[in-house]
Design brief:
two-stranded antiparallel sheet, 2 strands, 343 residues
Length: 343
């Protein structure tokens, strides 16, 4: 698996552009660079899900397993962070009219896409002869149970959208107060979910709020870092020191894990300020991140049930990836039609 990991690293840096020692990429949060970063991380999610279907224990797998273990839930942080950043960017440029549409065009739209994806999993379970109880399917629709799909992220992102809508409808003319209320609501949700649901539902959700705050203070942060060259490298040093310290302690507390997610998001930004990922494949994956994220388990689940490819990890990886891409494309084409009908 380490061989595939090395190919992945080469893919990340293939075509990358590097800013000079004193320069920065100013568009590091723009759509295309952000999509490339999300593409990088949706592949890490693919690695994580792939690992659950095969046995990895050889010497060639140790480096991959070590890195995967250290990353933990950080592999989903860019999705949450850029969602928060993008939502705040839209609010700043489009105002209250945009905020009013968040429940319908953001929260409901994500859930409808998710519910549609569940039909794919239901069909796959029928195909492989796996029984699905009505209660299990209904609980899957509200992201409490699963029929083979990823579920917690949908609950997290929908809640974040709704919290943002509430906060910015209350404080329509004060972005900082609205961001503070949104963050407070997220913290309350962390406290509640950490007692009722597995840790993954709440241990990175604060990075969505971090995206909102970063959008509000982006100009000031960039000016601070660009004022003197050493400030950027001091920020890098502090960020990585915090990551290492929190990484040792994060499993002791959900809040520590969430703080680690926020620090990780900032480390990611510092990286993209200097190194722009320009790979077209990763940009494509980032622009289709929802379908790739939600549906990547589908071919793995079917292949593991009806073939013996799971005994051949490299073949299983390649076949699963090759099948996931056209499935996600078909899904995206279908939801475009659904969106035209509903939204």
């Amino acid at each position: 698996m380490t061989i595939i990991l090395l190919i992945y690293v080469a893919l990340v840096f293939w075509g990358a552009s590097f800013a000079g020692r004193k320069g920065f990429h100013t568009d590091y949060c723009a759509l295309m660079p952000a999509n490339a970063v999300k593409g990088c991380f949706v592949m890490l999610v693919f690695f994580r899900h792939f690992k659950q279907y095969v046995e990895l224990g050889s010497a060639f797998d140790r480096l991959f397993l070590l890195i995967d273990g250290q990353m933990g839930q950080m592999i989903v942080v860019p999705f949450l962070f850029f969602s928060g950043y993008g939502l705040m960017y839209g609010i700043r440029h489009k105002g209250t009219a945009y905020v009013r549409e968040i429940p319908r065009k953001r929260a409901l739209r994500v859930w409808v896409h998710f519910a549609f994806a569940l039909l794919f999993f239901l069909a796959a379970r029928i195909l492989i002869g796996k029984r699905t109880r009505v209660k299990q399917f209904l609980l899957s629709l509200v992201c409490v149970k699963s029929i083979g799909n990823s579920n917690w992220y949908i609950m997290a992102i929908v809640l974040c959208y709704l919290f943002t809508w509430v906060a910015f409808m209350i404080f329509r003319k004060d972005g900082k107060k609205a961001a503070a209320l949104q963050t407070l609501l997220v913290l309350v949700s962390i406290a509640v979910m950490s007692r009722m649901l597995p840790d993954r539902y709440s241990n990175t959700i604060l990075s969505f709020s971090a995206g909102i705050w970063y959008c509000l203070y982006q100009d000031k942060i960039e000016k601070l870092l660009a004022a003197k060259v050493p400030r950027y490298y001091v920020a890098v040093g502090i960020t990585w020191t915090l990551l290492l310290l929190i990484g040792r302690l994060r499993d002791r507390s959900i809040l520590l894990y969430d703080l680690g997610a926020v620090v990780f998001a900032f480390a990611m930004l510092l990286f993209t300020m200097k190194i722009r990922v320009n790979n077209k494949i990763l940009q494509y994956m980032g622009s289709h991140v929802f379908s790739l994220y939600i549906l990547q388990r589908l071919p793995m689940m079917v292949l593991a049930a009806v073939t013996d490819l799971a005994e051949k990890p490299y073949v299983f990886f390649v076949v699963s990836l090759v099948l996931t891409i056209p499935i996600s494309w078909l899904f995206d084409e279908a939801v475009k039609r659904i969106d035209r009908l509903i939204f």
